[in-house]
Amino acid sequence: MQNQLWLKRQNLFALMMAVLIFISLPAQAANNELPSLAPMLEDVIPAVVNITTTRSASTPDRLRSFNERDLRPGAAERPISSAGSGVIVDAANGYIITNHHVVVGSDTINVVLTDDRRFEAKLLGSDPSTDVALLQIEAEDLVALKLADVSNLRVGDYVVAIGNPFGIGQTVTYGIVSALGRAGLNVENYEDFIQTDAAINMGNSGGALVNLAGELVGINTAIISGTGANLGVGFAVPANMVAAVSEQLQQHGEVRRGQLGVQIRDHTPTLEETLDAGADHGALIVAVMAGSAADQAGIEVSDLIVQVNGRNISSGRELRNIVGLAQIDSEVDMVIYRDGERRQIKAVVGNGGDSNVAQSGGGSTPDGRQLNDPLFRGTQIQSHSSGGVAVVNVAPQSPAWVAGLRPGDVIHEVNRQRINDLREFNQEVFQSDNLTALGVVRDERPLLIIIS
User: 317 in a domain, yes or no?
Assistant: First the structure.
């Protein structure tokens, strides 16, 4: 009896699983057609082009592209050719996006379409900081890709990479979005990469990363590999950054970076415990340049920027990317926290690229009290006539020095608490656990210095 009951249960379970599998099959499979990416790719592939470049042997080696170095080693004595990929983003105007490193230093740039038509392309502009370049060809009957709204992209979404790996011709690989917001490949660049395990190899640079709707989500640009071969860690410049850079390259032939005129750092839950700014994420203002866009907008040191133009800001890098790619003289709407209070503020983006606000302070006197706290190892301070304490000396490579404290600085706040003399300074520092936030005046400008 028990065996019969067990068999009935097993049969019922098998029937339920069969129904679930049938329901989950795509409509194509239910109609005796196998699921396939082919219909989408038939529309997308004509928008992805092969790019070949040539340069004279006299071009400096530092300008040789990533692809070229790997594809043509030891060929510096004769004209050099290299291969890459590109994506048509405007059929009417013949605009093609590729990587800066694919075309940098090239004497000629040739584009080959999927129908084997060949054109010499004009380089309209290139931006090394985002690794994006804009080309133009004069051709009819082009197919362009629509740019996706990457704000809706999620880790785990399926994506397809299309390009020209190793110069062998059009190739398609697929995978998922492995991570979003990757940075750190080059700290000087504007990075917000989409990471994918879709196979990207040398020659895929400048090619398309598309979603299953056939929309462009990114331009393939880099891999992490000790051998130069794909290890499932590839990166693409997201479509929103591509669009912003492309617009500026069309208008100016270069990217004219916007700036607020601030120094920033990432805000963290640990910092929030000390500063009580009002949120545990965002871009924390640690310095404001006199007369800058931020100064004119009323932004202050210790303000925490958590949103720009409706986009949430979780790090200083995100703020830098948005402002750096904004049009000069455009207005940005920001949400900030000041002393725990949420505020809205508008600023007009200034010109001039990145600027260092805080400069080293002036000289010091030999007098001063030596601090024994590990964070302030080798630091000497003395009372200041205007209140607070003046920094007389800072030991090089000490935590205080690494954080940016310099001789001549005048400390007026410790962990958001006003201090008037050495006794109050020592009392507040003694109460600090993992880090100390100093409100400093240097050259008559306020700074926030975090020592950890």
Answer: yes
How far lies 294's CA from each of 18, 207, 261, in Å? 62, 38, 6
Give me the CATH number covering residue 310.
2.30.42.10
Number of structural domains the chain divides into: 4
**Eight-state DSSP code of residue 349:** -
pLDDT tens-digit series, residues 190-242: 888 999 999 888 888 999 999 999 999 999 988 776 666 667 788 999 999 99
Element (H, E) at 431: helix 422-431
Domain match, 228 and 262 both: no
Tell whether 307 is covered by a domain. Answer: yes
- Domain residues for the domain of 376 are 369-451
Q: Which of 252, 270, 285 is the last residue of a domain?
A: 252
Look up tokens 């249960």; give the residue.
9
Cα–Cα nearest to 142, from 113, 180, 102, 177: 113
379 and 432 together in one domain: yes
- What pLDDT score was predicted for residue 188? 66
Residues with Cβ < 8 Å from 447, sequence gap 6 or more?
286, 287, 301, 357, 358, 404, 409, 439, 440, 441
Check whether residue 400 and residue 326 sit in a common domain: no
200: left (phi over 0), alpha (psi -120 to 50) or beta: beta
* DSSP at 291: T
Catalytic residues: 101, 131, 205
34 within a domain of the structure (yes/no): no
Whether 15 maps to a domain, the answer reads no
The confidence score (pLDDT) of residue 100 equals 93
The structure tokens 């990479």 sit at: 161
Each residue's pLDDT tens digit, 172-193? 999 999 999 888 776 567 888 9
| Inter-residue contact 161 to 206 (CB < 8 Å) | no
Q: What is the pTM of this model?
A: 0.74
